[in-house]
Amino acid sequence: AISNAGNRTITLSGSGSTLTFGGTMTNTSSAIQTTTVDGAGNTLVLGGYALSSNATSRIDIINGSGNVNITGAITNGGTATASGLTYSGTGTDFNSAASWGGTAPGAADAAVFNTAEVTNPNLSASITIQGLNFSTTASSGYDLTSSSASIKLTLTNTGTGATSAINAELWRSGYSGRCFDNFFRQRNA
Fold first, then answer.
1. Which residues contact 57 (CB under 8 A, 6 or more apart)?
2. Is 163 exposed, middle or buried (0-12, 13-18, 19+ CB in 10 A)?
3. How many CB atoms lie within 10 A of CB 24?
């Protein structure tokens, strides 16, 4: 198991290597934890991935061109703060694990964009996530689209920032007020 109480970077480079942590990787402070798996045939195996159980903001990034195999749950320890999975910029399918370094964001995750746009992600299926995080001023230029008007991105916790465009309908879970579609027309939820 790994517990990080400060900014940490774990990098697996080279080729054909496997790094295995049998326990859970946990971020225990308001720190940035970056795990990069690069190189052909490299694999990071985690027994689980979690945040400690308080409401402090955490940033957890898993990226790179290698493989990541998480056998346990990706959780936030029951808090309102989601772990972040970082867009690798190498795929165009928002829903594909390959676009996110091996694990696509799910209902407990925030999708993190931390670099300038290389490719634009497209929603191939409806998905609910905790939030979108355009984490730096360099992470701009994105145009998030959907394959059809029936495909929805639902944010259940945090919002968006930076100068990126979202051209898919957005619905905030549990919200009964006004919603705006991709043409910024007001509709009742």
1. 30, 81
2. exposed
3. 19
Instruction: Describe the strand order of the beta sheet including 143-146 as a list of residue ranges.
Output: 122-123, 143-146, 165-167
Cα separation of 46 and 33, whole Å?
14
Q: According to the model, what pLDDT value does residue 83 have?
A: 45
Give the E-state strand segments of 5-66 in sequence order.
8-12, 18-27, 32-37, 43-51, 59-63
CB distance 86 to 114 below 8 Å = yes
Could you say which DSSP state residue 120 is in? -
CB 60 within 8 A of CB 49: yes
**Residue of 145, 142, 184 lying closest to 168 (CA atoms):** 145
Q: Quick check: 76 and 60 in contact, CB under 8 A?
A: no
Q: Would you say the pTM of this structure is higher than 0.90?
A: no
pLDDT range class, residue 160, cuts 50, 70, 90: very low
The residue extents of the domains of the chain are 1-81, 92-100+111-189
Q: What is the structure's pLDDT at 173?
A: 47
3-state secondary structure 133-172: EECCCCCCCCEEEECCCCCCEEECCCCCCCCCEEECCEEE
Residue written as token pair 């968006």: 160
